[in-house]
Amino acid sequence: MATSQQWSSKLGFLYATAGSAIGLGAIWKFPYIAGTSGGGAFFVLFLAFTLLIGVPLLIGEYVLGRHSGRDAISTYNMLAPRSVWSVTGWLGVVTCFLILSFYSVVGGWSLIYLGSSLFGQLGGLDVGGYQAKFTGLIANPYLAVGAQALFLGLTAAVVQKGVQKGIERASKWMIPALFVLLVLLSIYSLTLDGAKEGLAFLFKPNWESLSSEVVLFALGQSFFALSIGVSVMVTFSSYASKKQDLPVSAATLGVMNIFVAMLAGIVIFPGVFTFGLEPSEGPTLIFAAVPAIFSQMPFGDIVVVLFFMLFFFAALSTAFSLLEIVVAAFMRGDGDKRAKGSWLIALFVLLMGIPSALSFGVIGDVHLFGMPFFDLVDFLASNILMPIGSLLICIFLLVKVKRQTLAAEFQMGSVLGKKAFTLWYTIMTGIVPVAIAVVLIDQFFGFNLFALLFS
After folding, report:
1. Regarding predicted confidence, which is higher, 165 or 444?
2. pLDDT above 80 (res 165)
3. Is 298 within the bounds of a domain?
C-alpha cells in the first residue's frame, strides 16, 4: 500500500532530510571519529566518499523511494516481488533500530548537559574538572538510562504525529538555528590560542596515519552523516512530490553536511589544542571540550546553554528519521498504527540500548570483540551494516530497476537532463559498488591496500 503521507513543500522535504543527516552525525560523531582517525587524512577521505559515493547513492535512494511511494521493506517487495531482495529493506530497518539504540544514549547525554547548563552547573571548572564531571554523570546508571528513556519518549511523541505535523514542523526551525549558532561558535573558536594547531590537525593530511580501518571509518562516516545505506532516504523520499528536484536536493544535502561537519571540527579542535585535550578522546570529546571552550568567553554560560539546546535538537532530528523508518515498516501504510507503533518500538529500542547506556559505568569492563557494548554496536551498524546496505541498494538499482525507469524518475521535476543522468548512472555502475566492495574486502581480509598506496 502506497503511503498517504507527504511533505508539505519542496523546502519541507529538504529540511526533513537535512534534519536526518545533519544531526549528531556531523556535530558529535564527525569530530570524535576525525580525532581518533588522525584528522586531515580522514577528512580528505570523508570529503571524497561523500561527494563521489554518498551523494550518488543518496540520489539512488531518493529515486527508489519516490518511484515506489512505499516504506523501506515494501519498496523492494514491489520492485522485486517474491525475491530475496526484501532483505535489503529489512537490513535497513534493523540497522536503524541498532543505531537508535546507541544514538539515544548520546541523546540522553545531551539532555543531561542541557539541564546542567540551564542550572549553571557547567561553569568554573578546569578541563580536568569537566572531564571528571562528564565521566561521573554518564557512569550513574539511573541517570544514563533515565535520560535515554526521556529522549526516546520525546522522539516517539513527535514521530507519532506524522511527517508534516511532527518531523517536518520540528525540523523547519531547528536546522536554520543550528547553522547560525555553529557559524558564530566557529568564529569564536578561531580566536583561541590553539586555533592554528587545531586547523592543521583537521585539514592537513598525514598520510602516514592512513590504514584500512581509517578508510572504513571515513566511508562509514559519510554514510552515517547522510543517513544512507539503511533506506532512511527511501522512506523519506516516498513522501516527496513528483515536482521535487531529487538530484539537486541530494547535492544540496551533501554540501550542507560537509559544511556542518567542517564547522563542528572548527568549533571543537582549536579548543582541544588550546586546553590540552586529546583529539582521540572518543565519543565523550565534545562534552569535555565544549564547556571548557565556552567557559572562557564573554556570556559563556548563555552560549553553553544555546549550544547544548541545539545539540539536543540535532540529536532529536536524526532520531526522528531513525524511528520513522522502523515505524513505517511496522505500519505498512496503515496510519492507524502510527501512534501505537511509535511508542512500542521506542520501548524496544530502550531495552536494546540499556547495555550501551551502561557501557560507561557498571558494565564498563565488559568487552565483546575487544570493544565496550556501545562501541561494538556503533562499529557494527556504521562501519559494517551501512556499507553492506549501500552496496546492496546500489546493486538492486542496477539489476532490478530498468534504466528507463531510473532516468524518468531522475529527471522528473529536475533542472538536470539526460547528460546528468548518464554521469550519475556511470558513477553508480563503475565507481560506487567497486569502491565499497574494495573498502570492505580490505577491512575484512586486512590487506591494508590504502596504506600501501600512500606510503
Report:
1. 444
2. no
3. yes
Residues 103, 322: Cα–Cα separation, whole Å: 10
Q: Considering the domain boundaries, does residue 5 fall inside one? A: no
Give dist(CA 8, CA 103) in Å, integer. 28
Kindly state the average pLDDT of the residues 281-290.
77
Set of cell numbers at residue 313 = 535538537
Q: Residue 2 falls within a domain, yes or no?
A: no
Q: In terms of C-beta distances under 8 Å and separation of at least 24 residues, what long-range contacts does 333-341 make, across chains too?
A: 333/1, 333/2, 333/3, 333/4, 333/70, 333/71, 333/74, 334/1, 335/4, 335/5, 335/162, 338/159, 338/160, 338/162, 339/160
Please give the torsion angle defined by the CA atoms of residues 150, 154, 157 and 161, in that order, rounded to the nearest 10 degrees: -170
CATH number at residue 402: 1.20.1740.10
Q: Which domain holds residue 228?
A: 10-454
pLDDT number for residue 172: 65
Which of 137-151, 329-343, 369-383 has the weakest average pLDDT? Answer: 329-343
Helix axes 169-189, 10-21, angle to 10 degrees: 50
CA 145, CA 436: separation in Å to the nearest integer?
36
Q: How far apart are CA 421 and CA 423, in angstroms?
A: 5
d(CA 24, CA 277): 21
pTM (2 decimals)? 0.83
For cell 540499556, the residue is 354
Q: How many residues does the chain have?
A: 455
Domain count of the chain?
1
Whole-number Å distance between alpha carbons of 217 and 276: 25
Tell me whether residue 260 is in a domain: yes
Cell of 375: 562501541
User: Which has the closest alpha carbon to 302: 450, 188, 200?
Assistant: 188
Residue 2's pLDDT band (boundaries 50, 70, 90)?
A: very low
User: Which positions ≥6 away from 22 have C-beta within 8 Å?
Assistant: 175, 178, 225, 256, 257, 260, 314, 317
Measured CA to CA, the distance from residue 65 to residue 13 in angstroms comes to: 13
